[in-house]
Amino acid sequence: KDFPGAQTVRLEQNYRSSANILGAANAVIAHNPDRIGKQLWTDSGDGDPIDLYAAYNEVDEARYVVERARQWVRDGGSYGEVAV
Questions:
Q1: What are phi and psi of 69, to 5 degrees?
Q2: Residue 80 φ then ψ, to 5°
Q3: CATH number at residue 55
Q4: Verdict on whether the full-model pTM lies above 0.70
Q5: Which residues have a Cβ under 8 Å from the Cβ of 19 and sit 6 or more positions away?
Q6: How far apart are alpha carbons 24 and 47 in whole angstroms?
Q7: Does any domain span residue 10?
Q8: What is the pLDDT of residues 15-64, one digit of tens each?
Q9: Is the distance from CB of 18 to CB of 45 less than 8 angstroms?
């Protein structure tokens, strides 16, 4: 519309996330009526299952995230490997 003749290039391959993460992302994105159709995919394998935690409120959510990060470090990981 703004750029007549422009070509749309869909960047669908993801090099960072697992197939489980991308499957969840695709399910959420599919509910957006304004989206441009695409299907995210990866060659990285399924990865770990997705955890779901239903927090009571923002404070409960923050405590849960901090405790998961601390447990990761206690199990031998580093805080540099943690992303929220």
A1: -65, -45
A2: -65, -15
A3: 3.40.50.300
A4: no
A5: 41, 42, 44, 45, 46, 47
A6: 12
A7: no
A8: 999 999 999 999 999 999 998 889 999 999 999 999 999 999 999 999 99
A9: yes
> CA 59, CA 22: separation in Å to the nearest integer?
28
Check residue 36 and report its DSSP letter: P
Q: Please give the pLDDT value at position 66.
A: 98
Write the CA distances from 18 to 25, 31, 44, 71, integer angstroms. 11, 21, 6, 22
Asked if residue 11 is part of any domain, the answer here is no
Per-residue burial over 37-62, b if 16 or more Cβ lie within 10 Å, else e, is eeebebeeeeeeeeeeeeeeeeeeee
Q: What domain range includes position 37?
A: 19-81
Distance CA 42, CA 26 (A): 12
Inside any domain, residue 57 = yes
Q: Kindly state whether residue 23 falls inside one of the protein's structural domains.
A: yes
How many domains, the chain?
A: 1
